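hi! just following up on the protien thing from before. the input was this:
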Amino acid sequence: MIFNIDPSEIIARAREVRLLVLDVDGVLTAGELFLADSGEEIKAFSTLDGQGVKLLQDAGVQVAIISGRKSPLVARRAENLGISQLFQGREDKLNALTEMCSNSGLTPDMIAYVGDDLPDIKVMKAVRLSFAVENAHISVKETAHAQTQKCGGNGAVREVCDFILQAQDKYDDAIAHFL
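and the predicted 3d structure came back as:
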Protein backbone atom coordinates (compact mmCIF):
# COMPACT_ATOMS: atom_id res chain seq x y z
CA MET A 1 0.00 0.00 0.00
CA ILE A 2 1.25 3.46 -0.88
CA PHE A 3 0.10 6.24 1.47
CA ASN A 4 -0.66 9.80 0.39
CA ILE A 5 -1.16 10.96 3.98
CA ASP A 6 0.35 9.86 7.29
CA PRO A 7 0.04 6.03 7.53
CA SER A 8 -1.11 6.22 11.15
CA GLU A 9 -3.98 8.49 10.04
CA ILE A 10 -5.00 5.99 7.35
CA ILE A 11 -4.98 3.13 9.86
CA ALA A 12 -7.08 5.22 12.27
CA ARG A 13 -9.56 5.95 9.49
CA ALA A 14 -9.69 2.26 8.49
CA ARG A 15 -10.58 1.29 12.07
CA GLU A 16 -13.83 3.24 11.72
CA VAL A 17 -14.92 1.79 8.37
CA ARG A 18 -18.28 -0.01 8.47
CA LEU A 19 -18.91 -0.10 4.71
CA LEU A 20 -16.57 -0.58 1.77
CA VAL A 21 -17.94 0.74 -1.53
CA LEU A 22 -16.43 -0.50 -4.78
CA ASP A 23 -16.47 0.73 -8.34
CA VAL A 24 -16.60 -2.08 -10.92
CA ASP A 25 -14.82 -1.41 -14.22
CA GLY A 26 -11.16 -0.86 -13.41
CA VAL A 27 -11.54 -1.90 -9.75
CA LEU A 28 -13.36 -5.25 -9.58
CA THR A 29 -12.27 -5.83 -13.17
CA ALA A 30 -9.19 -4.83 -15.12
CA GLY A 31 -11.29 -2.23 -16.89
CA GLU A 32 -11.47 -4.03 -20.22
CA LEU A 33 -14.81 -4.67 -21.89
CA PHE A 34 -15.11 -7.78 -24.03
CA LEU A 35 -18.06 -7.76 -26.41
CA ALA A 36 -19.05 -10.83 -28.39
CA ASP A 37 -20.52 -10.55 -31.91
CA SER A 38 -23.86 -11.45 -30.34
CA GLY A 39 -23.62 -8.29 -28.21
CA GLU A 40 -22.98 -10.28 -25.06
CA GLU A 41 -20.64 -8.57 -22.59
CA ILE A 42 -17.90 -10.53 -20.85
CA LYS A 43 -16.06 -9.42 -17.69
CA ALA A 44 -13.37 -11.14 -15.67
CA PHE A 45 -13.40 -10.90 -11.87
CA SER A 46 -10.58 -11.87 -9.50
CA THR A 47 -11.27 -14.73 -7.10
CA LEU A 48 -8.76 -13.12 -4.72
CA ASP A 49 -10.97 -10.03 -4.60
CA GLY A 50 -14.05 -12.18 -4.05
CA GLN A 51 -12.46 -13.96 -1.09
CA GLY A 52 -11.42 -10.61 0.38
CA VAL A 53 -14.99 -9.31 0.10
CA LYS A 54 -16.33 -12.42 1.85
CA LEU A 55 -13.74 -12.16 4.64
CA LEU A 56 -14.59 -8.50 5.19
CA GLN A 57 -18.32 -9.18 5.31
CA ASP A 58 -17.84 -12.11 7.69
CA ALA A 59 -15.92 -9.73 9.96
CA GLY A 60 -18.89 -7.35 10.07
CA VAL A 61 -17.92 -4.78 7.44
CA GLN A 62 -20.57 -4.34 4.75
CA VAL A 63 -19.66 -4.13 1.06
CA ALA A 64 -21.54 -2.25 -1.66
CA ILE A 65 -21.09 -1.49 -5.36
CA ILE A 66 -21.66 1.72 -7.30
CA SER A 67 -21.13 1.48 -11.06
CA GLY A 68 -21.66 3.97 -13.83
CA ARG A 69 -22.52 1.13 -16.20
CA LYS A 70 -25.31 -1.41 -15.96
CA SER A 71 -24.53 -5.08 -16.45
CA PRO A 72 -26.30 -8.35 -15.62
CA LEU A 73 -22.84 -9.84 -14.97
CA VAL A 74 -22.22 -7.34 -12.18
CA ALA A 75 -25.59 -8.16 -10.63
CA ARG A 76 -24.69 -11.86 -10.73
CA ARG A 77 -21.25 -11.23 -9.20
CA ALA A 78 -22.78 -9.09 -6.45
CA GLU A 79 -25.32 -11.81 -5.70
CA ASN A 80 -22.59 -14.49 -5.62
CA LEU A 81 -20.65 -12.39 -3.10
CA GLY A 82 -23.69 -11.57 -0.96
CA ILE A 83 -23.57 -7.86 -1.82
CA SER A 84 -27.11 -6.53 -1.56
CA GLN A 85 -26.36 -2.83 -1.97
CA LEU A 86 -25.86 -2.57 -5.73
CA PHE A 87 -26.25 0.71 -7.59
CA GLN A 88 -25.78 0.33 -11.37
CA GLY A 89 -26.12 2.82 -14.21
CA ARG A 90 -25.31 5.62 -11.78
CA GLU A 91 -23.01 8.12 -13.43
CA ASP A 92 -23.55 10.50 -10.51
CA LYS A 93 -21.87 8.29 -7.94
CA LEU A 94 -22.04 10.89 -5.18
CA ASN A 95 -25.83 10.94 -5.49
CA ALA A 96 -25.82 7.13 -5.31
CA LEU A 97 -23.66 7.29 -2.17
CA THR A 98 -26.08 9.77 -0.58
CA GLU A 99 -28.98 7.45 -1.39
CA MET A 100 -27.03 4.50 0.01
CA CYS A 101 -26.43 6.39 3.25
CA SER A 102 -30.12 7.29 3.54
CA ASN A 103 -31.11 3.64 3.06
CA SER A 104 -28.54 2.18 5.44
CA GLY A 105 -28.31 4.75 8.22
CA LEU A 106 -24.56 5.03 7.67
CA THR A 107 -22.74 8.30 7.16
CA PRO A 108 -19.85 9.04 4.79
CA ASP A 109 -17.43 9.07 7.74
CA MET A 110 -18.10 5.33 8.17
CA ILE A 111 -17.31 4.51 4.53
CA ALA A 112 -14.26 3.60 2.48
CA TYR A 113 -14.29 3.74 -1.32
CA VAL A 114 -12.11 2.20 -4.03
CA GLY A 115 -11.99 3.92 -7.42
CA ASP A 116 -9.92 4.24 -10.57
CA ASP A 117 -11.26 7.01 -12.79
CA LEU A 118 -12.65 10.54 -12.84
CA PRO A 119 -16.30 9.69 -11.96
CA ASP A 120 -15.02 8.31 -8.63
CA ILE A 121 -13.34 11.49 -7.38
CA LYS A 122 -16.37 13.23 -5.81
CA VAL A 123 -17.20 10.10 -3.80
CA MET A 124 -13.57 9.68 -2.79
CA LYS A 125 -13.55 13.22 -1.41
CA ALA A 126 -16.79 12.63 0.53
CA VAL A 127 -15.88 9.44 2.41
CA ARG A 128 -13.66 8.74 5.43
CA LEU A 129 -11.10 6.71 3.52
CA SER A 130 -10.42 6.44 -0.21
CA PHE A 131 -8.21 4.10 -2.20
CA ALA A 132 -7.03 4.24 -5.80
CA VAL A 133 -5.96 1.07 -7.59
CA GLU A 134 -2.42 0.98 -8.96
CA ASN A 135 -3.52 1.55 -12.56
CA ALA A 136 -5.92 4.40 -11.73
CA HIS A 137 -5.93 7.72 -13.53
CA ILE A 138 -3.36 10.13 -12.05
CA SER A 139 -6.09 12.49 -10.77
CA VAL A 140 -7.64 9.63 -8.81
CA LYS A 141 -4.27 8.65 -7.35
CA GLU A 142 -3.71 12.23 -6.23
CA THR A 143 -7.17 12.36 -4.59
CA ALA A 144 -6.93 9.03 -2.76
CA HIS A 145 -5.67 8.67 0.79
CA ALA A 146 -3.85 5.49 -0.29
CA GLN A 147 -3.05 3.51 -3.40
CA THR A 148 -2.93 -0.24 -3.82
CA GLN A 149 0.11 -2.00 -5.22
CA LYS A 150 -2.14 -4.30 -7.26
CA CYS A 151 -4.06 -3.30 -10.38
CA GLY A 152 -7.83 -3.29 -10.60
CA GLY A 153 -9.19 -6.76 -11.34
CA ASN A 154 -5.93 -8.32 -10.16
CA GLY A 155 -6.14 -8.34 -6.37
CA ALA A 156 -6.46 -4.63 -5.57
CA VAL A 157 -9.76 -5.10 -3.76
CA ARG A 158 -8.28 -7.97 -1.74
CA GLU A 159 -5.41 -5.69 -0.76
CA VAL A 160 -7.90 -3.11 0.54
CA CYS A 161 -9.99 -5.74 2.36
CA ASP A 162 -6.90 -7.20 4.05
CA PHE A 163 -5.75 -3.70 5.03
CA ILE A 164 -9.09 -2.85 6.66
CA LEU A 165 -9.19 -6.21 8.46
CA GLN A 166 -5.65 -5.67 9.77
CA ALA A 167 -6.41 -2.10 10.88
CA GLN A 168 -9.45 -3.37 12.78
CA ASP A 169 -7.45 -6.24 14.35
CA LYS A 170 -9.77 -8.77 12.67
CA TYR A 171 -7.41 -10.28 10.10
CA ASP A 172 -6.10 -13.21 12.16
CA ASP A 173 -9.63 -14.25 13.17
CA ALA A 174 -10.87 -13.82 9.60
CA ILE A 175 -8.35 -16.29 8.17
CA ALA A 176 -8.05 -18.61 11.19
CA HIS A 177 -10.37 -21.33 9.88
CA PHE A 178 -8.26 -21.61 6.72
CA LEU A 179 -5.06 -22.37 8.63
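The chain has eight helices and nine strands.
The chain has a mean pLDDT of 95.
cheers
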